[in-house]
Write a structure and sequence with these properties.
With about 450 residues, the chain is α+β, with helices and mostly antiparallel strands. The protein folds into two domains: about 90 residues, PDZ domain (Pdz3 Domain, Roll); about 260 residues, 2-enoyl-CoA Hydratase, Chain A, domain 1, CATH 3.90.226.
Length: about 450
């Protein structure tokens, strides 16, 4: 089953299966639902006969369909016209706009994450920001598509965002110049003898791209690569196939992820050694960086490498999106995006709500607003109508330890003075260097 990227504007890029819609499936209605459908028809007739303005049938029917889907969970929706076209544009991989992943949070537009290197990122928009006004117009209790359409536009044009940022007393304005969003799915660099691979989204060929990056870093380091950081921060997901491929790149045995729905025959298990043979970085310590913006496919990779003890996961608890959406085409101009399954890590853990808990919590000290934003970070469990974790885990229990770690006392100003712009990445690299020191290697051999 092939999977494609979901529209970033509709919250997070996540796994999407393409399924056909059958006439029988559309026509089948439980006989017990008859009275409820009668009530729906009665309300339709009341509106047509008594509403203050004349209302077109198309508007009423679309509203009823959208209402049914949005009552299920935050990721199921009806797509047609402009919204379906935007999805298709996103799947093609480029568009003109700001480069933001956003969601409606109790009527307000909230930033899940800006895409790295995008116009919004360069302008200083951050995860957790609320966009209250667009060009001075209040956007509250409106359709998300309306706000997204307003933020889209030709490259080179500008828009003024009014932002409320938790931790600041007053809203402030940011002017962002739109650009063509063509994200590089994979980038890499060498920090001495430690390689850093950043995966921005799970689009086509990510597994192969990371494989080539590891080979290039081995060559460039003269075969002395002592550690590897896989940076999945602010990566909202993408293709399930590519999440499996990337996990398989570093695993040589066992399951990677399982997908389970209502019907047992539809359950699927994805296993290692199906895409890549062996571990591409065998013998090299691996750190995976995650944060509250790491979701869906990112959580699949982090969970698989953590469960198999192939990597140490660092950073902040991930978003907690453990569901799969199927894109069901109704006709040439409309489709339904429907949640059809949950996925589980190799140990059987559902990341729904609780997310992936890092082995080592590392705050982003280099960001002066990070602590306040982390306290108010938007995750799956905060979304109205989210799916319940089947093991009924209260994810708030994962945050009971509020004692500050003595390693994390430095301020953003102190870090800047030392030339440290990304504390989480700095901490991961230093951890790998310590692990590769002669003393550490000798201790492991004993």
């Amino acid at each position: 089953m092939k999977f494609a990227n979901l529209t970033r504007a509709a919250l997070l890029v996540s796994a999407v299966a393409l399924l056909p819609a059958t006439t029988a499936g559309l026509a089948a209605v439980d006989s017990r639902s008859g009275p409820q459908f009668g009530k729906l028809v009665a309300i339709y007739q009341l509106i047509k006969a008594n509403y203050v303005d004349q209302v077109e049938d198309d508007k009423l029917l679309k509203g009823a369909i959208q209402g049914m889907l949005t009552s299920l969970d935050p990721h199921s929706s009806y797509l047609d016209g402009a919204s379906l076209q935007r999805l298709e544009t996103m799947i093609d991989g480029n568009y003109s706009g700001l480069g933001l992943s956003v969601v409606m949070d109790d009527g307000a537009v909230k930033v899940v994450s800006p895409f790295r290197g995008s116009p919004a990122d360069k302008a200083g928009v951050k995860a957790g920001d609320y966009i209250t006004h667009l060009d001075g117009v209040l956007y509250y209790e409106r359709e998300l598509d309306e706000a997204v359409a307003k933020m889209r536009g030709p490259a080179g044009t500008s828009i003024r965002l009014t932002i409320y940022r938790p931790g600041r007393d007053e809203p402030f304005d940011v002017t962002v110049t739109r650009g063509v969003i063509e994200l590089e799915p994979v980038t890499w660099k060498l920090e001495g003898d430690v390689g850093v691979v950043t995966v921005n989204e799970f689009s086509r060929d990510v597994g192969n791209d990371v494989n080539e990056a590891v080979k290039a870093m081995r060559t460039q380091s003269g075969g002395k690569l002592s550690g590897l950081v896989l940076d999945l921060r602010s990566n909202p997901g993408g293709s399930l196939d590519e999440a499996v491929a990337l996990s398989d790149l570093f695993l040589s045995r066992g399951d990677i992820v399982s997908q389970r729905g209502r019907v047992a025959s539809e359950n699927e298990y994805y296993r290692s050694e199906t895409v890549f043979r062996g571990d591409a970085a065998r013998g090299i310590p691996l750190v995976v960086l995650i944060d509250a913006g790491s979701a869906s496919a990112s959580e699949i990779v982090a969970g698989a490498l953590q469960d198999h003890r192939r990597a140490v996961v660092m950073g902040e608890r991930s978003f907690g999106k453990g569901s799969v959406q199927s894109l069901i085409q109704l006709d040439r101009e409309s489709a339904v995006k429907l949640t059809t399954a949950r996925y589980y890590t190799p140990s059987g853990h559902s990341v729904q709500e609780g997310g992936i808990e890092p082995d080592i919590r590392v705050p982003q000290l280099s960001d002066p607003d990070a602590r306040l934003r982390a306290e108010r970070a938007l995750r799956e469990s905060d979304l109205r109508g989210h799916l319940i974790n089947e093991i009924s885990l209260d994810d708030k229990q994962l945050e009971t330890d509020k004692q500050d770690d003595p390693r994390f006392k430095m301020t953003a100003e102190e870090l800047k003075a030392e030339g440290i712009e990304d504390f989480q990445l700095h901490y991961a690299i230093e951890t790998l260097r310590r692990a590769a020191s002669p003393a550490a290697l000798a201790a492991r051999r004993q």
